[in-house]
C-alpha cells in the first residue's frame, strides 16, 4: 500500500469537507486532526469567503512599511547623486542638510537608496574599501 501524501492545503480541504457534512462535531474533528478550534473556525470562514482557493497559505509579508523613506525625498537624493556622480552617501547627507532639508535620513539609508536604484557601481565601490592588514 503506497504512502498517502498529505499537504497542509489538502488537510484543510479534508477538514472542510468533513466539517460541512450533516451532524459533524467540530470539537471532535479538531481533536482528530490535531488543530485548535480557533484554527478550525478560521479555516471555515476562509472557505466560506472564497472557496477552496482561499485555503492556500497566505504571505506574512506586511502590506506597507510605515517608516519607509518618503518617495519625494528619495527622488531628491537621486537627483543630488545624478548632479554629483562621484559623491557618496556621506557627502549627499551633508548636502541635504546644507539645503535646509529637515528630515534628512541616515547615511546608511541614503546608501541603501542609491544601491536600490543602481547608482552605486559594486566594482567601483570595492576599489574604495580600506585595505585590511593581517597581523
Could you explain the architecture of this structure?
With 135 residues, the chain is mainly α. The protein folds into 2 domains: 8-55, Arc Repressor Mutant, subunit A, CATH 1.10.10; 71-127, Arc Repressor Mutant, subunit A. It contains 7 helices and no strands. The protein has helices at 8-19, 26-33, 37-50, 71-83, 89-98, 107-116, 122-127. It is elongated and about 75 Å long. The protein starts with 7 loop residues before the first helix and ends in an 8-residue tail after the last helix.
Shape label: elongated
Oligomer: single chain
Mean pLDDT: 90
**What name does the CATH topology of the largest domain carry?**
Arc Repressor Mutant, subunit A
Short description:
This protein is an all-alpha fold and about 140 residues long. The chain contains seven helices and no strands.
Amino acid at each position: 500500500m503506497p504512502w498517502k501524501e498529505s499537504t497542509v492545503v489538502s488537510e484543510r480541504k479534508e477538514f472542510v469537507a468533513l466539517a460541512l457534512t450533516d451532524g459533524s462535531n467540530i470539537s471532535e474533528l479538531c481533536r482528530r486532526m490535531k488543530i485548535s478550534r480557533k484554527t478550525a473556525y478560521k479555516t471555515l470562514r476562509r472557505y466560506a469567503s472564497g472557496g477552496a482557493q482561499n485555503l492556500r497559505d497566505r504571505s506574512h509579508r506586511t502590506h506597507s512599511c510605515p517608516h519607509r523613506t518618503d518617495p519625494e525625498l528619495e527622488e531628491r537624493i537621486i537627483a543630488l547623486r545624478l548632479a554629483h556622480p562621484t559623491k557618496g552617501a556621506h557627502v549627499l547627507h551633508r548636502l541635504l542638510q546644507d539645503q535646509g532639508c529637515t528630515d534628512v535620513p541616515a547615511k546608511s539609508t541614503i546608501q541603501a537608496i542609491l544601491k536600490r536604484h543602481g547608482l552605486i557601481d559594486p566594482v567601483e565601490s570595492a576599489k574604495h574599501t580600506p585595505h585590511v592588514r593581517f597581523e
